[in-house]
Amino acid sequence: MAWISGSEKGTVSSLIDRFLKVYGSPNHLRAGDSKDTLEQASFLMQGNKGPVVMDLENADYILSFGAGLLDGWESPVRMFNLYGNSTEGKTIVQIEPRLSDTAAKASQWVPINPGTEAALALGMAHIIVRELTYNIDFINNYAFGFEDWTDDAGQMQTGFKNMVLRQFPPDKVSQITGIPVDRIFEIARGFAKAKKPIAICGRGRGEIAGGINETLAVYCLNALMGNLNQPGGVCAVQGPDYIKWPEFSVDETASQGNQMERIDGSESENFPFSRNLVHRLPEIINNATGEKPIQALLISDANPLYTLPDAKAARKAFDAVPFIVSFSSYLDETAAYADYILPDHTYLERYRDIPTPTMAAVVIGLSKPVVKPLYETRHIGDVILALAKGFGESAANAFPWKDYETLLKETLGANWDELKKKGYITIGEQAAGTSFSTPSAKIEFYSTARKGASEKSDSPFPSYTPVPIEGDMQQFPLVMMPFDSIRLAASQIANAPFMTKTVEDTVLKKAYAFVEINPQTAKSLGLSEENEARIST
Fold first, then answer.
1. CA 411 remoteness from chain centre
2. What value, to the nearest 5°, has the Cα angle with vertex 308 and ends 305 and 311?
3. What Rg value do the Cα atoms of the chain yield, rounded?
4. Using CA atoms, how far apart are residues 160 and 347, in angstroms rounded to an integer?
5. What span, in angstroms and rounded, lies between the C-alpha atoms of 122 and 220?
6. For 55, 156, 223, 409, which has the most beta carbons within 10 A of its beta carbon?
7. 365 sits in which H/E element
8. How much is the pTM?
9. How far is CA 252 from the centre of its chain?
């Protein structure tokens, strides 16, 4: 059995974990997003296994590699507040191919060739290193792998410094990215001269995991400035630790099941740093011979038949799973494929805790019901409790709560009344500083963990590898760039766009979808505003 969920935080996610352990399955899967890649980069460079937060409020120079700050990235309320109240004295540079809302409101918009962000980050590192504008004291005392060094076998190893100086000169980076050389110098120098610069990434809303090399390249810019675990910088913090439920025991069958390798291969020898690889699921199911590796699949707060990259392969895989249950409140693509739909309450009808780590502390928000359930839906927490109690006495003992609301109150304890009244609380304190948990006890430009993971592992340095554009460029001369919109959301506390037209007429008008195209390109094709065009790929 496997369970695909949309979040790994809060009591509902912990309930799913507990249920699967009692049952005997290690397969709690979740679609990866940019935060996962960022956490992986933090682990490789800092040794931290917890969340990573960006202290944008205290930064004075924000360099965004495609992060849609005004297009749904992280908390929309926080981002609107950032732009509305605290942009004085703050430079925001948005690097992305499309003039998004974020790019339009930024101090500067830097158009870049799609998929070349890592090359630009390493080209900026070249300039910062060459001009000695990095934090020399921090690098000399707290960095490993920046300078060349001799390894234990007596072999000379190239450091990050000489790697970027040799491989990413500005003229080469300009050819790759399409950004003029003088513009690259301007951005690099502006970033290096700022008192509290921060570089971030995660395209659009950050719901796509992205490449580890790109994230590492951006992370290295922060490391060069020594802006790690500092106000206005990138901060590796502890995750929420308020869920302290009683220990429980499992039977022998469940114990054996829990020791099996995860179906997606995450945290295995081949993928030691990845905690979720749900995108591999269709390939694994479709290539299996004999009995399919998943006999039952449960899905909550997720729509994998819509979000997985290869929809055709995903549908084929789901056809092969004998038993599928969806907890969706809407008849989305995945729910339509399910054998059973056990609809959860909508966000307006239920309690749900929403923990969010910040630099100072962990903030726990509470989504509260404002209306009684309109239909015969049921809170997913109550369904899990009922399922577990149907498995027999040993399973029931692991779930001693009467219902989900009782569980939530007991979990939050003395904080419940304040949380219910205010809607949020802050707990604990986060410690900042320059201590790192890597093998070298320093920030690692050369990742010793990555090098030691496998003989076939990528370079222990961040690098840039071009992603080839698929298709015949003669027959298909344009590249279509999908983009996120803050108006189309379906998270734990967002109104999903079912039966509600939330987009403007310049996006969808009756049966017509609009395509944005560069005016000069459109003119060369004989197209003007509101012409009708047919797109094929």
1. 27
2. 60
3. 24
4. 47
5. 8
6. 223
7. strand 362-367
8. 0.91
9. 36
* Residues listed for the chain: 537
Q: Print pLDDT tens along the chain (537 aa).
A: 999 998 888 999 999 999 999 999 999 998 888 888 999 999 999 988 888 999 999 999 999 999 999 998 888 888 988 888 766 789 999 999 999 999 999 999 999 999 999 999 999 999 999 999 999 999 999 999 999 998 888 889 899 999 999 999 999 999 999 999 999 999 999 999 999 999 999 999 888 888 899 999 999 999 999 999 888 999 888 878 899 999 999 999 999 999 999 999 998 888 888 888 999 999 999 999 888 899 999 999 999 998 888 889 999 999 999 999 999 998 899 999 999 999 999 989 999 999 988 877 889 999 999 999 999 999 999 999 999 988 888 888 999 999 999 999 999 999 999 999 999 999 877 655 557 888 889 999 998 887 765 434 457 888 998 888 878 888 888 888 888 888 876 666 667 666 678 888 888 888 888 888 888 999 998 999 888 888 888
Beta bridge partners, 353, equal: 366
Closest CA to 27 of 261, 330, 236, 202: 261
Taking phi first (over 0 means left), then psi (-120 to 50 degrees means alpha), and beta for anything else, what does residue 451 get?
A: alpha
Measured distance CA(314)–CA(381) in Å, rounded: 27
Among 45, 10, 39, CA closest to 347 = 10
Q: How far apart are CA 3 and CA 20, in angstroms?
A: 8
Tell me which H or E stretch contains 334.
Answer: helix 333-337
Token pair 């962000």 is found at 117
- Rounded to whole angstroms, the Cα distance separating 121 from 134 reads 14
Written as one letter, the residue type at 343 is P
Q: For residues 276 and 28, give the distance between their C-alpha atoms in angstroms, rounded to a whole number.
A: 9
Of residues 124, 2, 118, 129, the one with CA closest to residue 465: 118
Helix residue spans in 47-168 (DSSP H): 76-85, 101-105, 117-130, 136-142, 160-167
Partners of 29 in the β-ladder: 4
φ, ψ (nearest 5 deg) of residue 485: -130, 135
For residues 350 and 371, give the distance between their C-alpha atoms in angstroms, rounded to a whole number.
Answer: 9
Helix axes 404-412, 380-389, angle to 10 degrees: 100
Packed helices 181-193 and 170-177: angle between N→C axes, nearest 10 degrees: 110
Q: How would you list the strands of the sheet with 108-110, edge to edge?
A: 108-110, 91-95, 61-67, 197-204
Both tokens of residue 94?
Answer: 């948005």
